[in-house]
Design a protein that fits this description.
Helices cover 37% and strands 17% of the residues. It is an alpha/beta fold. The strands form 2 sheets. It has a 7-stranded mixed beta sheet with strand order 4-3-5-1-7-8-6.
Length: 229
């Protein structure tokens, strides 16, 4: 039976990452280190190609996608934004240590939202609904693969909910510019709403032969030799 692949990639480094800030709805770009890091990864590792590309509308995601895949035209999916941290946006845990609402939020089971922000339950619901639509669209149209450029929280939420092997959210961490590939088996998806997590990405160049076979590189648009970076 035909299977389908979805590659989940995290955007590159921002100033917010470096400072340890809560950055969700705040639309900040990659910093210079983030740009250099993504270019280095792209030069030294192999990223997968795909037949369709989707991205969070945040500029840090669109920038990262453009650096790795300069010739593709992605579709923005608003539901793949990071969680909205409301009044906590742009602040660090240290700066919020005396805030009673921050303590309540950390202690909650996901039902509590930051003031002016989004609860973990609300965030998970919108992310999962969007992911399920992508899976169903691939199976309906027969498109073999897709790539989603998004945020760490989005990827961790998807893999915690749907991934096999099953693991807690804290076990699905990834570095900036990295992520995971999942394989959708239609029977497994229909019966259990689960996907096979089969690879971390990008892949080392010494594994290129295996990567080409697994990732359908032929589905990716050709990269222009003189494309601007």
């Amino acid at each position: 039976m035909k299977t389908y692949q979805i590659h989940l990639l995290r955007h590159g480094i921002t100033d917010g990452n470096v400072k340890g800030q809560y950055i969700g709805s705040k639309d900040i770009p990659l910093n210079d280190t983030g740009i250099s890091h993504i270019r280095s990864l792209d030069e030294n590792y192999i990223y997968p190609g795909a037949a369709a590309y989707f991205t969070s509308p945040m500029q840090r995601c669109r920038q990262t996608l453009g650096l790795i895949y300069p010739d593709v035209r992605p579709v923005d999916i608003d539901e793949f934004r990071e969680c909205d941290f409301g009044d906590f946006e742009g602040l660090t845990a240290g700066e919020l240590s005396d805030d009673k609402y921050f303590a309540e939020w950390l202690a909650s089971d996901g039902s509590c939202a930051p003031p002016g922000g989004e609860s973990g339950v609300e965030f998970g619901r919108r992310v999962c609904q969007a992911f399920e639509k992508i899976v169903e669209a691939l199976m309906k149209t027969g498109i073999p693969s897709a790539l989603i450029m998004t945020h760490a929280g989005v990827i961790m939420t998807i893999l915690t909910q749907y991934g096999l092997p099953e693991a807690s959210m804290s076990e699905w961490t990834m570095e900036p510019g990295c992520g995971y590939s999942v394989r959708i088996h239609p029977q497994l998806w229909t019966a259990a709403r689960k996907v096979e997590v089969y690879q971390t990405i990008p892949l080392a160049r010494e594994d290129e032969d295996e990567y080409d076979a697994e990732y359908l590189i032929a589905d990716a648009p050709e990269r222009s030799e003189d494309a601007e970076e």
